[in-house]
Write a structure and sequence with these properties.
The protein is an alpha/beta fold. The protein has 2 domains: 177 residues, Leucine Aminopeptidase, subunit E, domain 1 (3-Layer(aba) Sandwich), CATH 3.40.220.10; 314 residues, Zn peptidases (Aminopeptidase, 3-Layer(aba) Sandwich), CATH 3.40.630. Helix content is 36%, strand content 18%. The chain contains 16 helices and 17 strands. The strands form 3 sheets. Strands 7-8-10-9-13-17-14-15 form an 8-stranded mixed beta sheet, sandwiched between helices. A hairpin with a 7-residue loop joins β11 and β12. α8 runs antiparallel to α11. The longest helix has 26 residues. Bound molecules: ligand BES, manganese (II) ion (MN) and zinc ion. The site of manganese (II) ion has 4 residues, from loops. Manganese (II) ion binds next to loops.
Length: 521
């Protein structure tokens, strides 16, 4: 696990193998390159041999956003062995996302060079508080250092820890002369918790489907519960039958690995004031592998369908963070886990199935399985918890991926205020939650001629028709649906995302819950 230390002394006094120096681009044409560095840094660089100033002098490094230049100490026995100048562009355009990218890049550079100890100089900016900067830097670091290498056998001890592989061990965040050290430390600790929640989600999503069938996903949820003090219950087999989870069972019946319904509960509302917020439910699609079933998918790219439980992973990651942050509110995480496989017992196109809510569904495509397992989960949430608000997360449709790409999660809702809350929370975390439409016409497409609903419509507006199907199972509960089909995987445009699972939405969910708590104060 990476250790993060907040320091307030001058960067020159802190030994490190890599010191990252954020640099804004010149405000005026007349600014000299050296003017971009503080006096203390110029002094430090001069002691190291002056190569950072030489890089600036050459004109190669103009501090454009994301530009970097690594220089080396030429003096023997120097405290700092490398300097990385990192361009942030014009100071007035700074975004927190730029700082996440800076720290993510620093972490990756350190990992690539097998470095253990680095330090990052905090930026001084009027745009954000130093706490907000510390939060963003911490997030970028923890997320950028992540790698999924548990199946690499070279040069590694057996049974490595689950998270934070690689060489990087210790990072000093330097806020020279800062006064609010306790606040800074709190921000760093909170960001550590949420980012580790996101890395947990990535680990779960990256896990191959043979290593993570529904029962193992349930075991992981139980482990998180044990470690963080959440309550956990898992329904399976006869309990699902008795509970009427007919849609979840239909999806899972073609697989040797039986479906599981996971309930994680954070009982954080200990006083009347926090009870006023009401219960919040987070619901995740947990398809541990989506072959498409009898309506089988083409083989190209099918391997990525091991991450069709990324909604579930986000819920489990967020619940871990919510518990560790001890947020004073009642939050319930629900996961409908199943494997969608073809086979002699699989459900078929043309079947009519029931659901927990009692609605009948004609199966027109066994590959539209996510909405089926979510239908039972949403109904369970409403029925058991009468939540004040409910959010589901799912890698639900290829259509949403086509519409928004890797850049935004589609956000559908029956409640404008909730949709806006999520957009705002996403703005703050750098995870775009883009509002998408839900019209009565979308529901019309999902009506069956022989049952109450059918599970697939036409190609047009495929993400909206899927959301319209879900809406039939939430009653009057304020609800939002996040389609993370495009954002859940890869994301090379953000340096703090390595290829594979992104763990998207964990930080936004935590932020949303925190915002609900604050509104109540
Ligand atoms: N899990 C897929 C959606 C998906 C596709 C997620 C690509 C991530 C990347 C989902 O179960 C699915 O197969 N959806 C179908 C629905 C259709 C049959 C109505 C789709 O989008 O094609
Ligand atoms: Mn599918
Ligand atoms: Zn799926």
């Amino acid at each position: 696990m990476i250790k993060l230390i907040v320091k307030t002394q001058s960067a020159a006094e802190i030994p490190s193998e890599l010191l990252v120096v954020p640099v804004f681009s010149p405000a005026k044409e007349t600014d000299t390159p050296q003017g971009l560095l503080s006096k203390a840094l110029i002094k430090l660089d001069t002691e190291l041999g002056g190569s950072a100033q030489a890089a600036l002098q050459s004109g190669d490094f103009k501090a454009g956003l994301g530009q970097r230049s690594v220089t080396y100490a030429t003096e023997k026995g120097a405290k700092v062995t490398r300097l990385m100048l990192y361009g942030l562009g014009p100071a007035e355009n700074l975004e927190l996302e730029d700082l996440r990218n800076l720290a993510g890049t620093a972490a990756q550079e350190a990992q690539n060079r097998k470095i253990a100890k680095i330090s990052i100089l905090g930026v001084k900016t009027r745009r954000f508080s130093s706490e907000a900067c510390a939060t963003a830097l911490t997030e970028g670091l923890v997320l950028g250092a992540y790698r999924y290498d548990r199946y690499k056998t070279t040069g590694k001890k057996k049974k490595a820890a689950l998270q934070d592989h690689g060489s990087l061990r210790q990072v000093s965040l330097i806020f020279e002369g800062a006064k609010k050290i306790t606040e800074l430390r709190n921000s760093v600790n909170q960001a550590l918790i949420t980012s580790r929640g996101q890395n947990l989600a990535r680990d779960l999503s990256n896990a191959p489907a043979n290593a993570l069938p529904p029962a193992v996903l349930a075991r992981e949820a139980r482990r998180v519960a044990r470690e963080t003090g959440l309550a956990c219950r898992v329904l399976k087999g006869a309990e699902l039958e008795r509970g009427g989870f007919e849609a979840l069972m239909a999806v899972g019946q073609g697989s040797e690995n039986p479906p599981q319904f996971i309930v994680l509960e954070h009982r954080g509302a200990r006083n009347p004031k926090s009870r006023k917020i009401g219960t919040l439910c987070l619901v995740g699609k947990g398809i541990t592998f989506d072959s498409g079933g009898i309506s089988i998918k083409p083989s190209a790219g099918m391997q990525d369908m091991k991450h069709d439980m990324s909604g579930a992973a986000a819920v489990i990651g967020a619940m871990q963070a919510i518990a560790e942050l001890r947020l004073p509110v009642h939050v319930v995480g629900l996961v409908a886990a199943a494997e969608n496989m073809p086979g002699g017992r699989a459900y078929r196109p043309g079947d009519v199935i029931g659901s927990r809510a009692g609605k009948t569904i004609e199966i027109t495509n066994t590959d539209a399985e996510g909405r089926l397992v979510l239908a039972d989960a949403l109904d369970y949430a409403v029925d058991q918890y009468s939540p004040r608000a409910m959010i589901d997360l799912a890698t639900l449709t290829g259509a949403c991926m086509i519409a928004l790409g890797e850049w935004a999660t589609g956000c559908f809702a029956n409640d404008r205020a909730l949709q806006e809350e999520l957009a705002e929370a996403g703005d703050e975390t750098g995870e775009c939650m883009w509002p998408m439409p839900l019209f009565p016409d979308h529901l019309r497409i999902m009506k069956s001629s022989i049952a109450d609903l059918k599970n697939s419509g036409t190609r047009e507006a495929g993400a909206s028709t899927a959301a319209a199907f879900l809406k039939e199972f939430v009653g009057d509960t304020p609800w939002a649906h996040l389609d993370i089909a495009g954002t859940g995987w890869k994301s090379p445009q953000n340096s703090y995302h390595s290829t594979g699972a992104t763990g998207v939405a964990v930080r936004t969910l935590v932020r949303w819950v925190e915002d609900r708590v604050q509104q109540n104060e």
